[in-house]
Structures are given as structure tokens and as C-alpha cells.
Amino acid sequence: YYLWLDSLPLATIDADYDAQGKVGNPTLLYLHGDHLDTPRLATDASGQIAWQWQSDAFGRGEALSQGSTRVNLRFPGQYYDAESGLHYNYFRDYDPETGRYVESDPIGLSGGVNTYGYVQGAPLNRIDPLGLAAIEIDIPKSAYDWIPENIRLPAGRLLGGALLVASISGATPQADSDTKEQNCPKDCPPCKTISGRIIPVGTLGYRPLDIIPDDEMQHGVYGSHHNMFVANQNPNNCRCFWQKKNYVLKPEQLPKNAVPVEPFIN
């Protein structure tokens, strides 16, 4: 079973049934999705990774799991079929090895000249839940829109002696009030996780410890480490999300105010 919040998968429950149909030994795993609501990680109640799926932009990549744990959700609307290796996508089947559908578009050339293509070749910001038509995801078009409002400055303002150049797409010098009105059109509620914790925008978060041999280097450090994230909120739809940082930290390097990453409910 999967638990959902709109299009976002929150958790999966695996249970055994006896001869009388009673549920026994249920196992709950928390799902962590990316900006497309594609599950990428499953953790248990202790925060340990039980399943993870790392793939390229078109979904090519094998899922890794601990024991018998299986999560068959893939891109929104897709369900992994282990026997064929394809992703069942309602009206069509998707092949991640080629980044194309196995069947042609049901509406023929009316959907474009490439009748087998997936989301018009833009899988980083488009989804196709039914296998019929691409849907563009509302993602800020400018890096400026991702900066938390409490540390955001109008482009062109001096920051620590360095000029914040107005070269970011769509960013132009303007008054503070104008910036707030443009980038935060509505008052958003605070970000809250599934455990009920309120997470202020800008809070550092860390994923469960990646266990790596001490003599092996990953991401510029040797041994086990945490992948780091920062809490952010889309001002257009108030959706909260964890934005990945470009560095990792050892356990002893974690700031005191850092929190474990868990799914948001808003």
C-alpha cells in the first residue's frame, strides 16, 4: 500500500496476512521524493535507508534495496514491472533504457512528430501521469527565485563588499516592497513535516548517514557522510521542499541546528 498527499507519495506499508485475513507484521517506510514527486529514497522509522533509486534524467538506473524491500513507483503515474523492466504508465508503457514509450501516441501526429517521445524530451521539468500528454511542473525559472526570502536582496545590492550582479534571468534592481510582491504573491503557511515539526525556510537538513569505507572517497571526503539539504518554499504555490546542497558533512561536522530530512506535508 502507498500513502499519498495529492500527487506526492509519503509512505509505503507492507504487511502479511494470515489465513483469516488478519494483518500481521506491518512495515512502514517513509518515501522521499524529488521536485517531480518521484520517490528517490525510502527510510524506516529509525531513519535508515531501506531503498533508493538513482537514475539519469530519463529514469535509467537500478533501484537498490535492503532485504526484500521493494518500491515500484517511478516517475509520476508510472509503476515498475520487474519482469519486463518497463514502467506501466496507464495508456502506454515506458522504457527507461531508451527514454521512449513502447507504444505510439494514441492521438498520432496530433501530439507531435515524435509519437514515441517522453514529455517532449524534457524530463527534468515535465511529467506525463497518464502517458497521453506532458505536463510542465511549476519550477522557478531563475536561480534568484530559489533564494530564501529572509536572505534575498534586490539584484545590484552590495553584499559583503561583493556586487550581486543582475545577470540572473529575470532579476532587476527594484525596491524591497516590489521584490516581495513579485516573488511572494501570497502569504504562505510555515513548512511542516509529517512528524509535525515546523521547519523555517533556510534550515539545514541532513539525510541518514551514507555508510562508506574509511579509505573510499565520495563527494570530496573519505568515509561515511551525510548529504545536506536546505529547507525552501516555492512562493508561487507555497509548496515546501528540500533543496540539495553541493556538499556533504561528516557526522561530527553537523551544525547543532541541523535537522533530519523528512517529507513535508505542505
Question: How is this structure best described in words?
Answer:
With 266 residues, the protein is mainly β. It has 1 helix and 22 strands. The strands form 7 sheets. A 6-stranded antiparallel β-sheet has the order 1-2-3-4-5-6, with no helix packed on it. The chain is globular and about 55 Å long. Strand 7 and strand 8 form a beta hairpin. The chain has 3 domains: 2-136, no CATH class; 145-183, no CATH class; 191-260, no CATH class. It is 3% helix and 33% strand. The longest helix is centred in the C-terminal third of the chain and has 8 residues, at 176-183.
Topology:
Blueprint lengths: L1 E4 L2 E10 L5 E11 L5 E5 L5 E5 L9 E3 L13 E2 L6 E3 L2 E4 L4 E2 L24 E2 L7 E2 L21 E2 L2 E2 L12 H8 L7 E2 L5 E2 L4 E3 L10 E2 L2 E2 L3 E8 L6 E10 L9 E2 L6
Parallel strand pairs: 17-22
Antiparallel strand pairs: 1-2, 2-3, 3-4, 4-5, 5-6, 7-8, 8-9, 9-10, 11-12, 13-14, 15-16, 17-20, 18-19, 20-21
Count of discrete alpha- or pi-helical segments spanning 4 or more residues: 1
Number of strands: 22
Given helix and strand content, the structural type is mainly beta
> What radius of gyration results from the CA coordinates?
21 Å
Question: How far is the N terminus from the C terminus?
Answer: 21 Å
Helix % is under 10%
What overall geometry do the principal axes of the alpha carbons give?
Answer: globular
Kindly estimate the percentage of residues that lie in beta strands according to DSSP.
25-35%
Looking across the biggest beta sheet, what order are the strands in? 1-2-3-4-5-6
Biggest sheet layout = 6 strands, antiparallel
Report the order of strands and helices. Answer: EEEEEEEEEEEEEEHEEEEEEEE
Low-confidence stretches: 155-185
Output mean pLDDT: 81
Number of structural units classed as domains = 3
Protein name: Wall-associated protein
Organism: Pseudomonas aeruginosa
